[in-house]
Inverse folding.
């Protein structure tokens, strides 16, 4: 019974994901789903990304949160189109929520669409949203053990942005060890150390996006 | 159908929680369920708690994680009895998992039992484990917006341990604002700023535990 229901839920999700994917393809929109623990720095990273790339691309952002419009307001203040999904307790976005929010964009006019998922290192990675790429943000204060302790997330993402490297002098975090743990769980995954706050390393993330856009469109 | 199933899941959980609660009462065991985002510092806090209080109380710890035995090993190294629950992708502990793990303790011999939940600021707070107290850990690097963005967690806990205050000089976090946000969402909740790493403020947390123990037993 439990298995049947989970299958149904995922089947419905996958139908909506397919709908989204077709829409993204027909409108030439590159879509990146960004996931992390609460407070790893997804919104600050997106603010900097909008600031740096909005001269080159038309950018839209879907913000997922249990409550408040705070993150969408932060993105709007940077000049990008943003819409907020509130899950009211729900622990992840699903493809139907994303499909419903797409009505707020003219996708023909959007080159890059970022989806900032609910802050949660567990549930979001299990749901296909129809995106082209899944990216995880891991921040230095969370500690070295997170990649092995939350393997499902890091097995399913193709890029890890290791954020808040400006705090490395004050914390015991070993970047080489994180690379090693990631290569064991997901040898294909890339890892980019950066700081959204000091902007160190951001150029590598922007190059990654430009490469993904060039391949996709 | 969805509602019925959720009711069933919670009914089953509540039956197991009631079983746990009766057992804790009959064995005079004070039980504290600790919840937070990944990497907020729950395990380090428990290491320090075991170190400080194991002369006075017999302490047991149940560790919840998706994968690995790392946290239970850290607690065992401090000299406390610890058991590890691996949820294999599950985003929270439930009362049945806790009930099953209680067989590994002689509760007659345990004064304080800590349950370290899966690192997740969303799902764990919705499940009664039969515990006496729910405590949230929020860490400075996660940022000021978390209390309003994850209201279900902070409405359901009665104490917030604001961890990693040793990082306050390097980050924009306003403790007074966190107190204000918490008092709006949950006026009954206490908040203790501390650092498990530098030990600043830990005595207040230990006093809170001693007070809770005195009231419960």
């Amino acid at each position: 019974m439990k298995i049947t229901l989970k299958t149904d839920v995922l089947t419905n999700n996958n139908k909506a994901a397919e709908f989204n994917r077709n829409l993204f393809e027909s409108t030439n929109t590159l879509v990146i789903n960004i996931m992390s623990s609460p407070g790893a720095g997804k919104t600050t990273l997106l603010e900097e990304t909008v600031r740096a790339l909005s001269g080159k691309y038309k950018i839209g952002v879907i913000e997922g949160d249990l409550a408040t419009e705070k993150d969408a307001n932060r993105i709007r203040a940077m000049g990008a189109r943003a819409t907020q999904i509130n899950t009211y307790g729900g622990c992840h976005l699903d493809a139907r929520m994303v499909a419903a929010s797409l009505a707020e964009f003219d996708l023909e006019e959007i080159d890059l669409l970022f989806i900032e998922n609910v802050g949660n290192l567990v549930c979001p990675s299990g749901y296909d949203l129809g995106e082209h790429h899944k990216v995880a943000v891991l921040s230095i204060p969370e500690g070295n053990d997170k990649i092995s302790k939350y393997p499902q997330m890091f097995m399913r993402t193709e890029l890890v942005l290791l954020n808040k490297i400006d705090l490395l002098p004050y914390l015991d975090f070993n970047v080489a060890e994180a690379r090693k743990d990631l290569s064991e769980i997901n040898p294909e995954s890339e890892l980019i150390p950066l700081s959204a706050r000091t902007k160190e390393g951001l150029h590598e993330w922007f190059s990654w996006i430009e490469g993904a856009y060039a391949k996709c469109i």
